[in-house]
Amino acid sequence: MTFLAIQRQERPWLLSALATAALIGLPIVSVIYLALFPEENAWTHLANTVLPYYLKNTLILMLGVVTLTFLVGTGSAWLISMYNFPGKRWLSWALLLPFAVPAYVVAYVYTDLLEYAGPVQSTLRAVFGWQSMEDYWFPEVRSMGGAILMMSLALYPYVYMLARTSFLDQSVSLYQVSRSLGVTPFVFFYRVSLPIARPAIAVGLALVLMETLNDFGTVDYFAVQTLTAGLYDTWLNMGNLGGAAQIASVMVLVVVLLVSLERYSRRQQKQFNSRNPGNPIPCQTLTGTKAALATTAALLPVLLGFVIPFVVLTSYAFRYFDVSWSTEFVSYATNSFTLSAAAAIITLILGTLLAYSKRMNKHPITDAAIRISSLGYAVPGAVLAIGIIIPFAWFDNQLDAFMRATFGISTGLILSGTAFAVLFAYLVRFLAVASGSIESSLEKVTPNMDMASRSLGHSYLSTLTRIHLPIIRRGALTAMLVVFVDCMKELPATLILRPFNFETLATQVYQFASDELLEQSALSALVIVMVGIIPVMLLDKTISRQEK
Amino acid sequence: MNTVFKVALSLTLIMGSTLSFANEVNIYSYRQPFLIKPLFDAFTKQSGIEVNVVFAKKGLAERLVREGKNSPADLVFTVDIGRLNEVKEKGVVQAVSSSILTANIPTQYRDPDNQWFGLTTRTRSIYASKERVDLNKLQSYEDLANPEWKGRICTRSGKHPYNLALIASMIAHHGEAKTETWLNGVKDNLARRPQGNDRAQVKAIKEGVCDLSLGNNYYYGKMISNEEQSAWANAVHLTFPNQNNRGTHVNISGMALTKSAPNKENAIKLMEFLSQELAQQIYAEQNYEYPVNPNVAPSGLVQSWGEFKSDNLSLTTIAKLRKDAAKLVDKVAFDE
Lengths: 548, 336
Hints:
The complex is a heterodimer of chains A (548) and B (336).
Chain A: H1 11-36, H2 43-48, H3 50-82, E1 83-84, H4 88-94, H5 103-114, H6 119-128, H7 144-169, H8 172-180, H9 185-214, H10 217-222, H11 227-237, H12 241-273, E2 284-285, H13 288-319, H14 321-324, H15 327-360, H16 364-375, H17 381-407, H18 420-443, H19 447-455, H20 460-471, H21 473-489, H22 492-497, H23 505-514, H24 518-547
Parallel strand pairs in A: 1-2
Chain B: H1 2-16, E1 24-29, H2 33-47, E2 50-55, H3 60-67, E3 75-78, H4 81-89, E4 93-94, H5 99-104, E5 117-129, E6 153-154, H6 161-174, H7 176-189, H8 198-207, E7 212-216, H9 218-224, H10 230-234, E8 236-239, E9 250-258, H11 264-275, H12 277-287, E10 290-291, H13 300-304, H14 315-320, H15 322-331
């Protein structure tokens, strides 16, 4: 099917989908270009010295986090789905709460608690009369192990959520058949239930891995030299842009592997979805020690991943309120909110556009455009930053030179020197979140409505605004909210792309915490966490609706 | 619609906030703002010129290159020679001919082409535990590689500009091969993976993690005058290595005028102001650094740390060897 064969009315939609895809693809293309044609080629040096080390650290970190999130996420989802125990109703929701706390905030809080001068070690020393570090052993928080633990605490909800949804979906007949064949509940779990849930869990783990690769705040604080940390160092400390782009390309490679893994899992998922779910598996009621153990096990991730960080941040925020509550704080908060809101609105518009183009025609070009656009979510923020700032700065300077020569006016750095660059990074990174959720909302609207509306003489646009948008309002709002919160938390790209004299809550927390002044930025961290709780509540509603 | 409008308006304001105003000077600084704020306050009081500071630990040179002639920055402030030389090499700064600057700043502390100027000097010192270190066994940077100190040294990242400058000076004196052996030796003696800043290392000595650390000398003053940190400082000796031969390695903090400086006149006024007695005294008294202006004496506290001989290796040589030093750090996997 050629372009001309597409109906005239559909063309603008197709073209705008293509334009969106081109924009999203720009950062990746520029990173690869910079890596292939560097000003000063350091590839041999990098490949012979630091790169293997960065890669090794990244892989160890990813392996550790993926193992731990799998155990915690799947384990807690299984407990909640299969058993009744005290506090279950409340815990099934609370287990999602760590979503609200960014990994770097978890890391800052625990370092504060567990370092030598922190309350835990000080108490131990006072109780046992130890004098210095030579007298006892205490695990070092700022280490690879620490980083794995912190990130797992912040990321396991991805796995929990998807595993739980999948367990809820499983039909009771499977359970009954297995039980009647003499299978114990535990064997049923790993022989039947887990394999069925595997695709969903794999998607969750792929998301966890992408987030792990993306992280900068935690690894920077813990001096764990991953690819992201190496990219920052090579570019900004050593001033080697080409080398940084080469590291970025290695990261893109890792991402491509992850995305393929995720796509592969989703493809398999389809066969399971065609099943009629029927009644859910009945829950077994636990009593006595078993019940207590179950409650403890499900409570632990919530306690460590949310309650403790939240309590510590709140108490600091109160104690240092006079220092924290300043005009600067208000301006950081305004920056964060405005930028995130703008990003949320624009991603919603572009996401709707993409999803709607797909609904209108199943053209392979639209399909490809959507695939490319959804790739942005997997690209780490640091890679995006390089891929955005370089072409933008080039464009700005070209445009400025042209405008000066022709009209005698200077346009300055209209893209790279303003908040636009940050906004663009947010769009690239979070468009997939918006378009994905709108796509699934649209799927629930019967095509008959489109046909009816069109046959009554409405254009595609008017059909969208008068029929679809009112129907998918709720899904669209959720998508906006999730994007908003993701933007509030975003650190690696914001850090590089923000204009000078421009701080957000996240960058302020990062700067203060890295100068060991967490107390004074606790208020900002707390605001990020509290805003993060809102979509968690919505997520829970969605899941419990499914439960009924 | 109203909300959309408000968002659009706020965005315009955010974007507009990077535009510049008339009587001011804009600074990109690798130095922490609170360290230089008293100086700028004094300048504004005297001249009526507003000073806007933008601080970043990394990446300012790259930013200047990218921004080209559209950069809002007038001056770059750095904390070491490597970065001064970097902005010069990248061609983003310009020469300043000012008789005040040349009179106040000795030749060895400014660029031969007058593209950068030093403001203060500081030594890369060795901090040693008062309880656990025999200072007789620690006379030089070279001594840090002795097996005697196995598992007893702490430092920040080998790739930090301060350490790179020290390693560059080692390359200048001993050649690359010997420096590599030395750096390997130091690495073998580390108590933990390089991390944190200079002060965190002294804290680690106090906590018993290690016995020796590398650090700039002014941190000693900063820690002594800080309620919480004075205990760290009291646990250590501040030493000036290599007094029996070439002298202690010295670095500078400095400034350079950007090529595109939109407020060039104001910027030069500020540069001159900073080289004169009043500002140099603030540097000495509040930051515990050695003023470059020979007419200004170091603070009493700094003088109490004693006289010392400094290595008179040229700063330009150190800056030129910075890249080699960085490659060596990668090669011996110092930070791993």
